[in-house]
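User: Reviewer 2 asked us to show a designed sequence for the structure in our supplementary figure. I'm pasting the structure tokens here. Could you produce the per-position amino acids so we can include them in the response letter?
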């Protein structure tokens, strides 16, 4: 079984970066079981289609406007997922994750099980801004939801004895949260 844990969003727009920051934290804190891949999907849009098609099971972290209190987590599964993906498109040419899922479905390569762990954003307009406190506080509870889901699938991650050091992220050159979200000088 192949499992993809995907974080999507744009770290340059405050809470829109929730999905990316959640998957980064997951990587730093946990070692994945065989067959489980973590991916910072950022804003790759349709470039993610092959990765999604190759997964038997898919977990997605994203900022989702559910109309709830900021920082509230909500997990949706199965056929409900495409209705909730993406809090905001950043431009008219940007492809949303709904299109990625639709393409996988059209190719008849849709994952057999899919879960979206969404976090209600507070601020999507702060260009260059950090995650807001309620959204940042939701990262570890979101990871806990994913751990329970993965355990149910028989591929539970194992907590690392010590978190990976800065610079040991999913990408060798990534802009980690600590480095990017330094306090602003103003």
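Assistant: Here is a per-position design you can include in the supplement:
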């Amino acid at each position: 079984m192949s499992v993809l844990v995907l974080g999507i969003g744009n770290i340059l727009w405050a809470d829109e970066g929730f999905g990316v920051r959640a998957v980064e934290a997951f990587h730093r804190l946990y070692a994945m079981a065989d067959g489980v891949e973590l991916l910072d999907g950022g804003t790759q849009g349709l470039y993610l289609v092959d990765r999604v098609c190759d997964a038997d099971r898919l977990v997605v972290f994203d900022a989702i406007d559910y109309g709830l209190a900021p920082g509230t987590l909500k997990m949706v599964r199965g056929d409900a997922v495409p209705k909730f993906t993406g809090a905001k498109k950043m431009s008219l040419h940007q492809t949303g994750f709904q299109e990625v899922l639709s393409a996988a479905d059209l190719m008849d390569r849709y994952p057999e099980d899919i879960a979206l762990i969404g976090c209600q954003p507070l601020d999507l307009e702060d260009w260059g801004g950090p995650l807001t406190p309620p959204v940042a506080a939701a990262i570890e509870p979101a990871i806990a939801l994913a751990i329970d889901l993965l355990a149910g699938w028989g591929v539970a991650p194992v907590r690392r004895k010590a978190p990976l050091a800065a610079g040991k992220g999913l990408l060798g050159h990534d802009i980690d949260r600590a480095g990017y979200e330094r306090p602003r000088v103003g």
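For the response letter, you might also mention the following. The first strand starts at residue 3 and ends at 8. Residues 79 and 114 are 8 Å apart (CA to CA).
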